[in-house]
Design goal:
alpha/beta, Rossmann fold, seven-stranded parallel sheet, 9 helices, 7 strands, 16% strand, binds NADP nicotinamide-adenine-dinucleotide phosphate
């Protein structure tokens, strides 16, 4: 499938990123992971090595330019080069928050997290992809950039421009055998998704189950939420195989049908 391909998955010690790292490992790739908590990185590597030994990682804080530079150095010294860059993120610390509840520090941090750090990582690895005439760059984003939620103001505004960047990069990089795509994700079962709804329920003075039902389950036509390994991992692996090489410059919804806009 993807034997020997060198894959970086950011924000990958739990939740969506962890599931995606697992899917790539199962497909035979070499995988490098990262997140803020070094102990979580170590624990995730230990648990992923039960699937396959070809996984490494290092500390990474996407809100910090210095940390991203350190991460690029760590990846380069371990893998040498990168074939596949899966750009996942965490969540802003002050979320959920309507615009009036945010500070300028929140915005700086959020733009680093969702927009500038992915750009830094692409700049770090795209030269090698061009040299080898093969590459995949995939942004993991949210359907809420198309249908913004007031309480996700930081995330939705900060990562919306990745759709423009996807198109621009696909034009510039296509001749080098590099495809660029964005996945607009619906709800996936992760600690982060549960925490967001818990915080929202607290704000609204409602029970978790009630808000989970009204915000998450009820609006999804297929009446289930996504599994990061099965529903998302398999899509990403398809895009990274040669069979996926005609798909570039756009976004794909992986959302159980929740997005209303055509
Ligand atoms: N789950 C969903 O339903 C859903 C739907 C649409 C979009 N998304 C988006 O997908 C992303 C992942 O969500 P999730 O639900 O998987 O979250 P999660 O369960 O909270 O996992 C987040 C992961 O990112 C890491 N992380 C957090 N902040 C980071 C930072 N500043 N730098 C580097 N790594 C960081 C965390 O580890 P540390 O805490 O150790 O850093 C953890 O490994 C988020 O951007 C979220 O908005 C999620």
């Amino acid at each position: 499938m993807l034997f020997g391909k060198r894959v970086v998955v950011t924000s990958s010690t739990r939740g969506i990123g962890r599931g995606v790292a697992e899917a790539f490992l199962r497909a035979g790739a070499k995988v490098f992971i990262g997140s803020r908590d070094p102990t979580a990185v170590k624990d995730a590597i230990t648990s992923l090595r039960k699937i396959a030994p070809s996984v490494w990682g290092s500390q990474l804080d996407l809100t910090s330019p210095d940390s991203v530079e350190f991460f690029i150095e760590q990846v380069t010294s371990k893998l040498g080069y990168v074939d596949i860059l899966i750009l996942n993120s965490g969540n802003p610390s002050n979320e959920p928050a309507n615009f009036s509840e945010t500070t300028m520090d929140d915005w700086t941090s959020s733009v680093n997290l969702f927009l500038l750090s992915p750009i830094r990582l692409i700049r770090g690895f795209v030269g090698g992809m061009k040299e080898r005439h093969w590459g995949r760059i995939i942004f993991l984003s949210s359907y809420t950039v198309k249908e913004p939620k007031d309480f996700f103001s930081l995330a939705d505004v900060s990562r919306a421009p990745l759709i423009q960047l996807t198109k621009i990069l696909s034009r510039e990089l296509g001749e080098f055998g590099i495809t660029v795509n964005t996945i607009l994700m619906g709800t996936f079962l992760t600690p982060g998704a549960k925490k967001s709804i818990e915080l929202l329920a607290r704000r609204r003075g409602k029970a978790f189950e009630e808000v989970w039902n009204e915000e998450v389950l009820k609006p999804i036509p297929i009446k289930r939420i996504g599994d990061p390994v099965r529903d998302l991992g398999s899509l990403l692996i398809f895009l990274c195989q040669d069979e996926g090489s005609y798909i570039t410059g756009g976004y794909i919804l992986s959302d159980g049908g929740v997005t209303q806009a055509v």
